[in-house]
Design a protein that fits this description.
The structure holds 2 protein chains of 2 kinds.
Chain A: E1 8-15, H1 23-26, H2 46-49, E2 81-83, H3 96-104, E3 108-111, H4 116-124, E4 128-131, H5 134-146, E5 149-154, E6 159-162, E7 165-168, H6 173-181, H7 185-190, H8 193-206
Parallel strand pairs in A: 1-2, 2-3, 3-4
Antiparallel strand pairs in A: 1-5, 5-6, 6-7
Chain B: H1 5-12, E1 14-17, E2 23-26, E3 29-32, H2 38-47, E4 57-59, H3 81-97, E5 100-101, H4 112-118, E6 127-130, E7 144-147, H5 150-159, E8 161-164, E9 168-175, H6 184-195, E10 203-208, H7 210-214, H8 217-225, E11 234-236, H9 241-250, H10 255-265, E12 278-283, E13 290-292, E14 300-302, H11 317-326, E15 342-345, H12 353-363, E16 374-377, H13 382-390, H14 393-400, E17 403-404, E18 425-428, E19 443-446, H15 449-458
Parallel strand pairs in B: 3-4, 3-6, 4-5, 6-7, 9-10, 9-12, 10-11, 15-16, 15-18, 16-17, 18-19
Antiparallel strand pairs in B: 1-2, 2-8, 13-14
Helix pairs in contact in B: 2-5, 6-8, 12-14, 12-15
The chains are: A alpha/beta, B alpha/beta.
Bound molecules: iron/sulfur cluster.
């Protein structure tokens, strides 16, 4: 782990009071046409953020904003933390959903559960998904309803601080480490290249039909 | 002993484990399409890494391809410049790395989850991944198949492995004999409505029971396809004689190899005393045709039921209100009160030959309602299209007023020219009714091919 000050994420928490926010909402299919890994910030929650239909490459400034949507309110435009409810990121496997959140500046997502593929994708991109019980999520919504909230997430102590209240969360050391250091899984796995080769050789003998090429 | 089918597949592919609790799992087959692969290939190029085992990979363009294409159609003819780049990019990357691709001109092109099984690339006992959540489809063959993100696509290309944690085990037993108008689409929609869209989160679902034993591979694929809509990235069915018969037709394996393989595949089943973390049994004899009314695949009702206005769970009341508003449901009480604009028969859920036969049977000698602006049938692959044409199904569709298209994902998602205009209501055989899924502000009602055909005829939902 790096220095202490790097393992705290502090910022405004935005909130969307919905269950099952699917990856089509996080980023609609139109923007999946990009072949890049960055530059998705303007398309995050596109269907909710804008009143008109967008197109890849069309700039945000020429679009009609939905002023009621939370991320369009000035104080939430720089949110680093997002609060939602059950099953956040369900649906499609598109990593673009994580890229859009990341590019917008979101670093932490707090929800009562996550879509499995989305959850995995988060860690590959340094985004921290925090799973909390429904009752804690209720409390966080209550607290945020009053005013825009400055929230602090401490990775080392696994605590969320908000208005003098403290909420703890679980996270495997290895995953916390990955959020902080952004390891490349390919490098890690290729350390086992010999093992993979041995496994493969054995498999070719045992299950030859898998490797059959006409 | 005491292992589930999922446990067996996991152990069979286990390479090593990490302190994090994750394991390295060997991948036998990797499918690729144009949307989730470009950034992965770019990563390989940047790191100067070659694919670990080139022939494990099979690619095809499906999401972006227009479904009106002449025989001579080339990538250059794609109107949407950005879609064109993506399809070209797949071409370029497959050429560069020597990956087998069924390109836009190939007779075998189609939706990746339709062509894999029909061309014999999906075999029981395999681990199969693809940068697409509906990879769960292949679980119908007794494979450990799951959707992955683009970083994982790159990882699989580079290492032939996936670094993942083991899922929990869940079993769904479908028992009983359904009434004749019920298809596997109704059965899976009924399950999702019962356990909810997060009901399978963190689990691999094995589908079992007398109903599963008696249905075809096509019907099984529809069920496994939508396990992701129930929250489970893995859906599984133990291979049996039905599976082997299918494979005798589809696979290219020499006879001896196939015989050895079948002997092994026959062992791929859950032990009688294996324990599941979750288990439910559903009586399929009571299921009526299922149709979604809202914006989540759990917002499903019987075709003749009253559209709900309140939720049974306190915290998702807002979801209900949002869904009713988005779907344009005000005073309408039943699905039959809603007027439909378009009908879409297709997608990796329901674009196989059986689905087309089901719909054609309903449409034979009938015309679609004048109120329907457009009705399209999009076969899941070039092979499905060819088969349907040899059976004369295309004439039934065309005579009824449907458009007969070339294969692709089409109106399942608003990425290609087939999409809904704002506020249009669509009877769709696809898998997701999310806001904007079929086009900005479009309204999707999920249903079986039979119900979609009936809706086309009447312009609204009606029973048989
Ligand atoms: S048909 Fe629809 S769900 Fe299936 S792969 Fe294509 S876009 Fe995805």
């Amino acid at each position: 782990m790096r220095t202490e000050d790097n393992i705290q994420i502090e910022g405004i928490m935005a909130f969307i009071d919905r269950d099952n926010i699917d990856t089509d909402q996080i980023i609609p299919t139109e923007y999946l046409k990009s072949i890049k890994k960055f530059g998705y910030e303007d398309y995050l929650f596109d269907g909710w953020r804008y009143l008109d239909e967008g197109k890849l490459g069309v700039s945000k400034t020429s679009r009609k904003l939905n002023n009621e949507f939370i991320l369009n309110q000035p104080i939430f435009m720089t949110s680093k933390i997002l609060l939602a409810r059950d099953n956040f990121g369900c649906g499609s496997s598109r990593e673009h959903a994580v890229w859009a959140l990341r590019d917008f500046g979101i670093q932490v997502i707090i929800a009562s559960s996550f879509g499995d593929i989305f959850y995995n994708n988060c860690f590959k991109n340094g985004l921290l998904p925090i799973n909390l019980s429904r009752s804690v999520i209720d409390r966080l919504f209550q607290l945020s309803a009053q005013d825009a909230q400055l929230v602090k997430v401490c990775l080392q102590s696994r605590n969320i601080y908000l208005q003098g209240e403290e909420f703890s969360f679980n996270l495997e050391d290895d995953l916390a480490d990955r959020i902080i250091n952004q390891f490349d899984d390919i490098d890690i796995s290729l350390k086992f290249a010999d093992k993979i080769s041995c496994f493969e050789q054995d498999r070719i003998t045992k299950r030859p039909w898998i490797f059959y090429n006409e | 002993m005491h292992s589930t089918l999922y446990d067996k597949l996991w152990n069979e592919h286990f390479v090593t484990s990490f302190d994090s609790g994750e394991s390295l799992i060997y991948i036998d087959r990797h499918y690729l399409h144009e949307v989730t692969s470009p950034q992965a290939f770019e990563g390989l190029i940047k790191k100067n890494i070659k694919p670990w085992r080139v022939d494990a990979n099979i690619a095809t363009p499906d999401h972006n391809v227009p479904t009106i294409r002449a025989k001579s159609f080339a990538i250059e003819s794609i109107d949407d410049e950005i879609s064109k780049i993506q399809v070209k990019e797949l071409d370029k990357n497959c050429d560069l790395f020597g990956i087998k691709q069924f390109d836009i001109k190939s007779l075998n092109q189609g939706i990746v989850h339709v062509i894999g099984p029909e061309l014999g690339y999906t075999l029981p006992g395999m681990t199969i991944v693809c940068g697409d959540s509906h990879t769960s489809t292949h679980g119908a063959f007794g494979c450990l198949a799951m959707g992955i993100g683009t970083s994982e696509v790159e990882h699989v290309l580079a290492t032939q492995c996936l670094k993942i944690s083991k899922l929990k085990n869940m079993r769904v037993n479908f028992e009983g004999i359904p009434s004749p108008d019920i298809t596997s689409k109704d059965v899976i929609l009924f399950l999702i409505r019962t356990i909810g869209v997060s009901g399978g989160n963190g689990h691999a679902i094995e589908f079992a029971g007398s109903y599963i034993e008696n249905i075809s591979m096509e019907a099984r694929m529809t069920i496994c396809n939508m396990s992701i809509e129930a929250g489970a990235k893995v859906g599984l069915i133990a291979p049996d004689q039905t599976t082997f018969n299918y494979l005798k037709r589809s696979s290219n394996l020499p006879r001896e190899l196939l015989t050895d393989a079948i002997e092994f595949w026959s062992t791929l089943k859950t032990d009688p005393d294996a324990k599941f973390d979750k288990e439910i049994t559903i009586d399929v004899s009571k299921i009526k045709p299922q149709i979604s009314w809202g914006t989540s695949p759990e917002m499903v009702i019987d075709f003749d039921e009253t559209i709900p206005s309140t939720s049974t769970r306190k915290e998702n009341q807002k979801n209900f209100e949002n869904a009713r508003k988005y779907m344009g449901i005000k005073d309408e009480k039943k699905l039959s009160d809603l007027k439909f604009d378009r009908v879409f028969i297709g997608s990796c859920t329901n674009s196989r030959i059986e689905d087309l036969r089901d719909a054609a049977k309903v449409l034979e000698g009938k015309k679609i309602s004048k109120k329907i602006l457009q009705a399209i049938v999009v076969p899941g692959s070039g092979q499905v299209k060819k088969q349907a044409e040899s059976e004369g199904l295309h004439s039934i569709f065309i005579d009824a007023g449907f458009e007969w298209r070339e294969s692709g994902c089409s109106m399942c998602l608003g990425m290609n020219p087939d999409r809904l205009s704002p506020y249009e209501r669509c009877a769709s055989t696809s898998n997701r009714n999310f806001e904007g899924r079929q086009g900005n502000l479009g309204r999707t009602h999920l249903m079986s091919p039979k119900m979609a055909a009936l809706t086309a005829i009447h312009g609204k939902v009606i029973g048989q």
